[in-house]
């Protein structure tokens, strides 16, 4: 069933809180892909409110660097101590900031 921009599984509309979810089959499909950079809304586990599943996905994809913005804080300096353990560089993007692919802030829009 197609309702606007969303494709719903088995014609059933999911709970709105799940519209941004990565379902297990989507995770498995993404894990078979290769990428240097992974951009997610949520943070990996190096953030206090992050998720280990994002770590797993990044490692499966061979990601070198991940970016996230949901928490609206930039804890990149804290993350650096965990990069070796994570297996990739994790970079937070502050509220209203823009970073380049190396993680350098190029503009703050506040």
Question: How would you sum up this structure, described in words?
Answer:
This protein has 110 residues and is of the alpha/beta class. The chain has one domain (21-108). The protein has 4 helices and 7 strands; from the N terminus they run ββαβαβααβββ. The protein has helices at 24-31, 52-61, 76-79, 83-86; strands spanning 2-3, 6-7, 37-40, 65-68, 89-92, 97-99, 105-108. Strands 3-4-5 form a 3-stranded parallel beta sheet. A two-stranded antiparallel ribbon has the order 1-2. Strands 6-7 form a two-stranded antiparallel ribbon. β6 and β7 (105-108) form a beta hairpin. The longest helix has 10 residues, at 52-61. The termini are far apart.
Residues in β-strands, percent: 15-25%
What's the main sheet like?
3 strands, parallel
Portion in helices: 10-25%
Shape assignment? globular
- The mean pLDDT is 81
Radius of gyration: 15 Å
Q: Secondary-structure element sequence? A: EEHEHEHHEEE
């Amino acid at each position: 069933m197609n309702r606007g921009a969303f494709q719903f599984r088995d014609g059933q509309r999911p709970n709105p809180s799940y519209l941004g979810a990565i379902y297990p089959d989507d995770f498995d499909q993404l894990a078979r892909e290769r990428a240097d950079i992974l951009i997610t809304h949520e943070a990996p586990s190096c953030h206090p409110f992050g998720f280990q599943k994002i770590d797993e996905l990044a490692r499966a994809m061979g990601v070198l660097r991940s970016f996230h913005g949901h928490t609206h804080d930039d804890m990149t300096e804290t993350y650096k101590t965990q990069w070796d353990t994570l297996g990739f560089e994790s970079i937070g993007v502050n509220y209203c900031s823009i970073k380049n692919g190396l993680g350098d802030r190029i503009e703050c829009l506040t």
